[in-house]
């Protein structure tokens, strides 16, 4: 369980981590596996923007946000926020398996379900089950996988609840008085969501050999081959891109920025060289940090691109000309 911070012990913001609440969300599950979150106060908020605003305003030391789902892809709200808010750094990534259940008010049967409350990302991952078991239903969007359960009960003054059922985590009964009438709603049993702990600290975790670096890059101009030129900054240095996604730049219609993860650490010679080349090429590069991979898998590096080979090449180059 998260620790309760005693404000008498120091600055409360230094001991607070914001996350998409309420308690019981998958984001809270990510906090439970994050060593950096142990002993801190966990502050539930309503959305990613509010969580990151806590960080930039100094109300929280860091925020846990979802950045990618293995089925639905990148979480665009998080990607856009990381591009728009200066100074943010990713301190670590954490992967949470995604499972969904169908919750109802006590006594409700599956045949009674007409409207289902669900977070849009959760809803998108349960389409097959819903189509087979609740055809013709209506989707009511919810702010989170826990907030969806609130739609099962009438608001003050209302006679009817907004929804007959809700897509929730399997642990929903720990937080809300509901019944679960179906488990395993997810279309893909291997579904995972990747979360990032984001703060403002500029220090980078030491490299482990199993690291990842995250960037956001804009092309210098819109022309044939511009994207290939950007990608060559990595390919020619033996740096693998494990993820790349495009996002529109709101203030420049028709232009895009690229959110990317690459295998390696900024202290790796090949990664540092690629970043220098990228900055010469692009007018706007956002370095989001280097941090250990969640899966702990060592990065496979070709022998031509190891630090030792970079050092040997530098020594060879310095020896080409005698300097007095």
From TrEMBL:
It catalyses: prephenate + H(+) = 3-phenylpyruvate + CO2 + H2O. NCBIfam families: PRK11898.1. The lineage of its organism: Bacteria, Bacillati, Actinomycetota, Actinomycetes, Micrococcales. It comes from the Bacteria. Residues 16-200 form the Prephenate dehydratase domain. Pfam families: ACT, PDT. Keywords: Amino-acid biosynthesis, Aromatic amino acid biosynthesis, Lyase, Phenylalanine biosynthesis. This is Prephenate dehydratase. The record marks 193 as: Essential for prephenate dehydratase activity. Pathway: Amino-acid biosynthesis; L-phenylalanine biosynthesis; phenylpyruvate from prephenate: step 1/1. Its EC number is 4.2.1.51. Residues 215-293 form the ACT domain. One of its GO terms (cellular component) is cytoplasm.
């Amino acid at each position: 369980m998260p620790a309760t911070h005693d404000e008498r012990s120091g600055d409360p913001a230094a001991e607070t981590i914001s996350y998409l609440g309420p308690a019981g969300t998958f984001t809270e599950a990510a906090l439970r596996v994050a060593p950096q979150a142990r002993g801190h106060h966990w502050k539930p908020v309503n959305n990613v923007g509010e969580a990151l605003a806590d960080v930039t305003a100094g109300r929280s030391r860091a925020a846990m946000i979802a950045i990618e789902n293995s089925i639905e892809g990148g979480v665009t709200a998080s990607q856009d926020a990381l591009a728009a808010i200066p100074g943010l750094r990713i301190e670590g990534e954490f992967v949470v398996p995604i499972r969904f259940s169908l919750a109802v008010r006590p006594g409700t049967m599956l045949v009674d379900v007409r409207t289902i409350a669900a977070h849009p990302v959760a809803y998108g991952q349960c389409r097959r089950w819903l189509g087979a078991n609740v055809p013709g239903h209506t989707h009511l969007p919810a702010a989170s996988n826990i907030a969806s359960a609130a739609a099962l009960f009438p608001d003050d003054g209302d006679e009817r609840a907004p929804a007959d059922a809700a897509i929730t985590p399997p642990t929903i009964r720990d937080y809300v008085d509901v019944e679960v009438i179906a488990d395993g709603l997810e279309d893909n049993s291997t579904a995972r969501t990747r979360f990032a702990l984001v703060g403002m600290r500029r220090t980078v975790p030491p490299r482990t050999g199993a690291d990842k670096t995250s960037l956001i890059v804009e092309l210098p101009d819109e022309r044939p081959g511009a994207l290939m030129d950007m990608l060559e900054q990595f390919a020619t240095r033996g740096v693998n891109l494990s993820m790349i996604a495009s996002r529109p730049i709101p203030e420049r219609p028709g232009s895009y920025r690229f959110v990317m993860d690459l295998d390696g650490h900024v202290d790796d010679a090949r990664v540092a060289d690629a970043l220098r080349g990228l900055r010469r090429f692009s007018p706007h590069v956002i370095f989001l940090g280097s941090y250990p991979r969640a899966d702990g898998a060592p990065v496979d590096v070709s022998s031509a691109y190891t630090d030792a080979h970079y050092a040997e090449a530098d020594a060879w180059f310095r020896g080409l000309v005698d300097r007095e």
